[in-house]
Design goal:
Radius of gyration: 19 Å
CATH architecture of the domain at 3-180 and 221-246: 3-Layer(aba) Sandwich
Number of strands: 13
Oligomer: single chain
CATH superfamily of the domain at 3-180 and 221-246: NAD(P)-binding Rossmann-like Domain
Distance between the termini: 50 Å
Helix content: 40-55%
Largest sheet: 7 strands, parallel
Bound molecules: nicotinamide-adenine-dinucleotide
Strand order of the largest sheet: 3-2-1-4-5-6-11
Length: about 325
């Protein structure tokens, strides 16, 4: 049984990770600004605290944990990250969290720390062709992320690697590509495309219309939460430091994503394309390195994960409607 700290344990990936680590028999402490909103945490100990405050980071690393998973960040989907309105907070808050967490972890004698970087670090100039984006791990320089979120992630990758080089703390780095699944943001302004379209489709009667930012020909790949966690656990157990992509290679257009969700729901809706924050034109995970280093890569079809996600969002949308009706 390992003793493990998950920072960002109230968030989407963190709350699922805690569940998995508990199922594997570990002792887990979580820390976050908030408890997981959709189900009771399974952590043995959960600290509510602001990791921008170094004293909180020292408090939660009061022992030489076997593993720390640093997932806390001020982040969200395109509406949050690409609108430009949250740039200062994204950079300032997430950088502070990482500066404090790596220092506190090293001082506490933590044996291994995982950091969740992002596909958003990859240069914009390699992601203009929606059919042929280039996102191999070594394509990151010359650096030109298209968001401040990406720049902060790139800075923090360097920060963790510098602590490993200078202070010997064992680090693992992964670059997540659009992780999705049940029990994540779906209507709070931080939701990402899969959850946003599941919600729109669930809320709209058959034959109706939903809105989509852009022309829908922009491409992305989406990785289901269970496979993301499988990749993270395998990376932590391996000797490979990273950074490595953890993502799906099943690239689809956003129009296609919406169509798959409509099929799952059994609805035919028309799409109204409107201007909005978009990000790069095309992006896909390149899984050659993960396969080479870990002998594993994600393989589950997108539609399977979308079914789970849609059915969960359908339920929360219905519950939300019921509550609203009660209030009125
Ligand atoms: P999330 O927003 O659901 O979780 C992040 C958590 O960090 C939230 O619960 C939030 O309350 C917490 N947090 C923010 N500021 C904090 C602070 N000052 N002190 C304590 N806690 C704080 O996001 P997620 O999807 O679970 O992402 C987890 C990590 O993975 C993040 O670092 C994110 O950047 C990275 N990532 C996620 C994706 C994705 O598709 N979900 C893709 C690339 C990278």
């Amino acid at each position: 049984m390992d003793r493990i700290l998950v920072s960002g344990a109230g968030g989407f990936i963190g709350s699922h990770l805690v569940k998995r680590l508990k199922a594997e028999g570990n002792w887990v402490r979580g820390v976050d600004l908030k408890y997981p909103p959709f189900r009771k945490t399974q952590a043995d100990d959960f600290v509510i605290g602001d990791l921008r405050d170094p004293r909180i980071c020292t408090k939660v690393t009061d022992q030489p944990f076997d593993e720390v998973y640093q997932l806390a960040a001020d982040m969200g989907g395109a509406g949050f990250v690409f609108s430009g309105e949250n740039d200062a907070d994204i950079m300032h808050n997430s950088a502070l969290i990482n500066l404090n967490m790596i220092e506190a972890s090293y001082k506490a004698g933590v044996k291994k720390i995982f950091y969740s970087s992002s596909a958003c670090i990859y240069p914009e100039y390699n992601q203009r062709d929606p059919d042929n984006p280039r996102c191999s791990e070594d394509s990151v320089y010359p650096a030109a992320p298209d968001s401040e979120y990406g720049w902060e992630k790139l800075f923090s990758e360097h920060l963790y690697l510098a602590f490993m080089r200078n202070y010997g703390i064992n680090v693992r780095l992964a670059r997540f590509h659009n992780i999705f699944g049940p029990e994540g943001s779906w209507n709070d302004g931080r939701e990402k495309a899969p959850a946003a379209f599941c919600r729109k489709v669930a809320e709209t009667p058959d034959g109706g219309e939903i809105e989509m930012w852009g022309d829908g020909f922009q491409t992305r790949s989406f990785l289901y939460i269970d496979e993301c966690l499988e990749g993270v656990r395998r990376l932590m157990k391996s000797d490979f430091i990273g950074p490595v992509n953890i993502g799906s290679e099943e690239m689809v257009s956003i129009n296609k994503l919406a169509e798959i969700i409509m099929d799952i729901a059994g609805k035919k809706l028309s799409i109204k394309h409107i201007p909005g924050p978009l990000g790069v034109r095309g992006r896909n995970s390149d899984n050659r390195l993960i396969e080479e280093k870990l002998g594993w890569k994600p393989t589950a079809p997108l539609v399977e994960g979308l079914k789970e996600t849609y059915h969960w969002i359908e339920k929360v949308v219905a519950a939300d409607k019921k509550q609203e009706a009660k209030r009125n």
